[in-house]
Design brief:
Length: 338
C-alpha cells in the first residue's frame, strides 16, 4: 500500500521479454519496465529457448530494481505479486515464477499465477478505464489467434482458434522468407506501407461457412511459392509488394471473422489484444469496419499489445479480487489453455 492505493507487481518472462510493472489499484501503471532480448535472438532468426532463460536470469534483478525505482516504491509497499505461469517457454517461465515465489515467501506477499493470454486481454483494462466484461475478444499474438467471449475478468469461452500457424508466427515466417529478419511482424508492418496490397492475390482462407477458426499456413506457403517461382524466373522480388499483399490477405480474413462473430452474437464491443494488435494496418481495417457496423473498438497502445508486466499485474489483481490466490507450489504450464 502506498498513499492508500493497492500495489500489484506484475512479472512476465514467458518468451523473450523480461518485464516487470507496478500497478496501483489494478489498472494504473506506476512503472512498466521491459527488457527485450530481440538483439540477441535476431542473430538466430527466432527465439532460442535456452538462451532466453539464461538472459531472463541475468536481467531479472536489474529489471525488478528499475521497476521499483521508477514507481518510487519499495518492495515493502507491494500488496500482491502476479506472475505469468503459462503458456510459454518452460525455462523462461520458471525464472519469473522463481523470482515471484522468492519475493512472496520472503516478504509474505500474496502470489497469483496468471495465464499469459488473460494478461493480453487485461492490457485493455489498463488502457480503457471504462471497459468491463462481458465483451467479444480478438487475440492476435505470436503463439495464438483466437476469437473469445470474455465472460468475466479472467474467464472466457473460446469461439475460434487457429488450426495451424498463429498470425504472428505467419508474419515472422514470411518476414524470414523475404529477408527481413526477426521479429518479422513490425518489419512487415513498416515495409507494407511502401507496397501495393493488391499486387499479388494471396489466398484468403475462410474455412467452412460461419467458422470462427483460422488457417494461415496456406497463405504463408503461397508467399514462399511466389518468392521461389520469381527467383527461378530470374525476376527481382518486390518485397514491399509481397509484404503488403500478404498482410492484406491475412488481416482481411481476421477482421472479417471478428466482425462476423460480433454481428452473429449481437455484440457491440470488440476488444483486440496481443502483439499483432500493434499492427498499423490491422488498426486501420478494424477501425473502418467497426465504424461501418456500429461496433465499439477497444485496443491497447502498442507497448501494451506486446508482452509486458503491466498486463500480468492487472490480470492478477482481478484474480485476487475473486480469491484466486496461488501457493508456493505454483508451477510453469507451457501449454496452458486460455
Ligand atoms: O503477444 P506477443 O508479444 O507474444 C506472444 O504472446 O506471442 O506477440 C509477438 C508477435 C510476434 O509474432 C511479432 O512479430 C508480432 O507479435 N508483432 C507484430 C507487430 N508487432 C509485434 N505483427 C504485426 N505487426 C506489428 N506491428
Ligand atoms: Zn504474448
Amino acid at each position: 500500500m502506498k498513499d492508500g492505493r493497492h500495489l500489484t507487481m506484475g512479472i512476465e518472462t514467458s518468451c523473450d521479454e523480461t518485464a516487470i510493472a507496478i500497478l496501483a489499484d489494478g489498472r494504473d501503471i506506476l512503472s512498466n519496465v521491459i527488457s527485450s532480448q530481440i538483439d540477441i535472438h535476431k542473430n538466430f532468426g527466432g527465439v532460442v529457448p535456452e538462451i532466453a532463460s539464461r538472459h531472463h536470469l541475468e536481467n531479472i534483478n536489474g529489471v525488478l530494481d528499475e521497476a521499483l525505482d521508477k514507481a518510487n516504491v519499495t518492495i515493502g509497499d507491494i500488496d500482491l505479486i502476479g506472475v505469468t505461469c503459462g503458456p510459454g517457454l518452460v525455462g523462461a517461465l520458471l525464472i519469473g515464477i522463481a523470482t515471484a515465489k522468492a519475493i512472496s515467501f520472503a516478504k509474505k506477499i500474496p502470489l497469483v499465477g496468471v495465464n499469459h493470454m488473460h494478461g493480453h486481454i487485461s492490457a485493455n483494462y489498463i488502457e480503457h478505464k471504462d471497459l468491463e466484461p462481458p465483451f467479444l475478444g480478438l487475440i492476435v499474438s505470436g503463439g495464438h489467434t483466437n476469437i473469445v467471449m470474455v465472460k468475466d475478468y479472467g474467464s472466457c469461452e473460446v469461439l475460434g482458434s487457429t488450426r495451424d500457424d498463429a498470425i504472428g508466427e505467419a508474419y515472422d515466417k514470411v518476414a524470414r522468407v523475404i529477408g527481413l529478419g526477426y521479429p518479422g511482424g513490425p518489419k512487415i508492418d513498416e515495409l507494407a506501407k511502401k507496397g501495393n496490397p493488391d499486387a499479388i492475390k494471396f489466398k484468403r482462407v475462410y474455412l467452412d461457412k460461419d467458422s470462427l477458426d483460422f488457417s494461415f499456413s496456406g497463405t504463408k506457403t503461397g508467399v514462399l511459392n511466389h518468392v521461389n517461382s520469381e527467383k527461378q524466373k530470374g525476376n527481382d522480388i518486390n518485397t514491399a509488394d509481397v509484404a503488403a499483399s500478404f498482410q492484406e490477405a491475412v488481416l482481411e480474413v481476421t477482421v472479417e471473422k471478428a466482425i462476423s462473430a460480433a454481428k452473429n452474437l449481437k455484440q457491440d464491443t470488440l476488444v483486440v489484444s496481443g502483439g499483432v494488435a500493434a499492427n498499423s494496418r490491422l488498426s486501420e481495417m478494424l477501425s473502418e469496419r467497426c465504424k461501418e457496423e456500429g461496433i465499439k473498438l477497444y485496443k491497447p497502445r502498442p507497448i501494451l499489445c506486446t508482452d509486458n508486466g503491466a498486463m500480468v499485474g492487472c490480470a492478477a489483481y482481478y484474480k485476487m479480487k475473486k480469491g484466486e490466490i496461488s501457493d508456493l507450489c505454483l508451477d510453469a504450464y507451457p501449454g496452458l489453455e486460455i
